Fold Histone deacetylase.
Amino acid sequence: MDHSVCYISDPQLIKECCKIPNVSKRAYLVDSLIKAYHLSDHMDVFKVNPSSYEDLIGFHSSAYVDFLKKLNDNSSILDTEDEYGIGYDCPVVKDIWQFITYISGASLTAAKALTTMKYKFSINWCGGWHHALRDSAQGFCYVNDIVLAIEILRTTFGKVLYIDIDVHHGNGVEYAYMATDKVLTLSFHQYEPGFYPTSGSLDDIGIDKGKYFTVNVPFKEGINDDKYITMFQTISNMVYSSYNPKCIVLQCGADSLAGDPIGGFNLTPKALAECVKIIMKWGKPTLFLGGGGYNEANVARCWTYLTAIITGQDDSLSSDIPDNEHFSAYGPDFILDINPGNRKDFNSFCDLNNIFSVIAKNMKIVKELVRKQEQ
């Protein structure tokens, strides 16, 4: 069978992902549930080609990469942890060099599969570490695999549209491209005082040549499926038509789901699924990545469902969790569905209309700038 989807699955990658704080079993759950539903039968499965030093400095500073390499051999150099972010939310992990080269290499492998033009879609649920900065780790993210992958995609496709539906603002990716029009970043996230990473306001629109090519959709606590889907559909389609990208990267952080211990939304996988369907209709090469998500069983449920949609198998997907080695994690109901949350929704229609109006005005400017560039 000629498959149009590439899927990254590698036992060593899964082991490396399980070193990440708060998600020590997640990669195992996700991969085993996808295979229990036989979804891997509808994809070409790729193992990881680990990143090289040269790959990593395609975005990260050589000083930071050198530090990680030295840290791999000698953890006593941690007196510089404040400078490089290794410590509180990004603690030292065993064999950190192998860890970062597999984490980043997985997304590079997925991106390179798209550049062959053999695949429409490429999936790496072990990717999506959107907080890492050029010279420091941040927010459980040691290396920004997303930026590294985008740089690979740019060499073949040119303009890339990056979309982030994690509950947290995709600050690391935004900062990487805030001064350029070569990549437009669009982030849908929770934005309230004290909510990590406290960036991503509606007024953050980029700088210099990148002004208006940064788009933030800041929600308050408690948004539900209907409001989220409506906002995503109207804004993403408007951004897509204005920017006219040749390739899409979607970060599918599942901490936006109800029941996540860190997030504050009321969403079910239906909302994320609708986002995926909207993007698939555009017909562009698309890289799907993971991200946050700290209710591990719910993340596995969600990304399995998204995989079924991407492979066109969602109509035949049973709601009953099939037998697998982690079956007990899905109790007590042992079903694929996730109920919506019951947090109070603080997102008024007035607030949402204001967000839409501001972005619509900015996208008129983007459309005109793009038109002039393409003349």
